[in-house]
Sequence to fold (612 residues):
Amino acid sequence: AKSARGLAESAEGTLRGDKGLKEEGDVDQNRFLMRAISLAREELCLILCAFFCLAVSSASGLLLPRFQGSILDHAINNDKPKFKSEIQLLIIFTVITGLFEATRNLCFTVVGKRVLKTLQDHLFMGVIRQDIAYFDGTTSGELTSRLTNDVSSMAEPINWMLSSIVRNAVALVGAFILCFSISWKLSMLAFTTMAPIMHITAVYSRWSRELNRKRYALLAEANSAASEALGNVRTVRAFSTEEVEIGRFKSKTQAAMQKGVRDAFAYAGAVAVNDWLDLGASVLILWYGGSLVMQGRLSAGKLITFQLYWNQIQSAYQSIMSVLMSLTRAAGAAQRVLSLVDALPDIDPNAGTMVSTLEGDIKLQNVHFHYQMRPQHPVLTGVSLHFGQGQVCALVGRSGGGKSTIVHLLMRFYDPTEGKILLDGWDMKHLNLKSVHEHMGLVAQDTQMFACSIAENITYGLRKHTVEDMEEAARYANAHDFIMRFPEGYATRVGERGVRLSGGQRQRIAIARMLLRRPKILLLDEATSSLDTESEALVQEALDRLISEGGRTVVLVAHRLSTVQNADMIAVMEKGSVVEQGQHEELVELNGVYQRLVRRQLSKGKSTVDSG
Ligand code: ADP
Fold:
């Protein structure tokens, strides 16, 4: 029964382990595992204490079968005083074993929890500092899975791996020697069953690992199908495609389940054979050992002691197997987690020269750019532009021309692949990005909110502010009235990603943020197409206030004719380059792309120079 449990553990280890079994080499995995274990360095005191308890409990645990056997012999021989004293010793050693075992367990568990926390923190720090390009290529589902699954797959076994391997190795070797000291013939006989048990465990593990590798791949597909459907739940509802999504999900879970069932059958078979061999060993021990007892060559107590040691060997072996399985799993997880912890972003926000003030003069010099995800697709091809200090500059042109990309480059979400961006004459790459961002503000097309209160969203990232300032900014951004209409006012929680607010409301909150921050450089990626007319007018008014505050360089991706008309400089973008540049009147007179854009929009009766 013990070996069956051991096999179950090792099988479970295999099951769970397969997530970790990626293509990467074992050597590399072990290197990462050692790094993971080295994270436990800070817990050295606790670990030493745990190992001390381990030594005591292992030693006293190994003595228990001795007492049990000799107690039986004293009972048979009717030796009352010895019987009594051995019973007392047995009780004392049982208490000692239990006590130290519990303390060992406690120490290792605490170490495990603390290492888990350290890892989680390291990983989150590693992830959030990655380049924006990194997030373009990774789903948030994948990242959260690393933060939760991989980290616990990695940290969880560290605790019991350390203790279990040592404890079981001691038990195995100790019990082995003690078995031979009782009777070498009996030992040899019992050990003949070990070879087939080892073989079956190994064969089953290999097979199951392969099967589960496939099963986990299917489960991962099910997960990504689910997260895609749930992430786009409004689209799914709008198209009434719930059944399609359910079908897609079910087909993956069904296939995974079938693999799981196959594994269950094989597992049952392996356990059955293992149990027979295990019980067979006991039969052999009793048969041969019993005959030794009958011949008077072995006492009954010694036979019992032998049997108890034999059980220890069995369970220690199975435990070690299961630890080795989960080691593979931990190593795989460790590799994925630590490669991320160690990965240094190309754009380090903390490096470079600090800036305390900015004038707000921006120059793009022959900027080329493509997104990492699509290297074959040039997005900017030699853009040179000058956004003068305190000027309002507009980027217009058809959709896909690269306007938002310029805004991204100015925020340094990405670096140009060629060319330079100069801020007050300094190459932006050499400036400390954190300090630059203090003087820069972005109102993006899709305003991102946190699932906290409106007040917290407006003041996000600000260290110092007063409630009056915040309310004034909101008033100025045409947001105060709608906020006050909520029963909880500024304390209203906006839900995940701000779902409880309309697009126009989110935009006005974003504008309020900027009014509060008063950045020297303001980047606006206007989005009005999704707003209703009333909302649009309110947003427009707020934007106009923000833009006309003065003393600030504004770069806006503009759609509205009114904003564009008043701009100090308009750049018309097409297919990644600037095709026309100047003020409204100059550009209209050119009778080119800009003029066509304006005419098209005016004829549609909209006051936008839109990107159709
Ligand atoms: P515009 O703002 O003028 O509409 P964008 O700068 O948004 O244009 O996009 C320019 C080109 O870059 C488009 O072809 C778009 O598909 C591509 N693009 C935008 N963002 C990404 C991204 N994160 N990864 C890959 N390609 C992108």
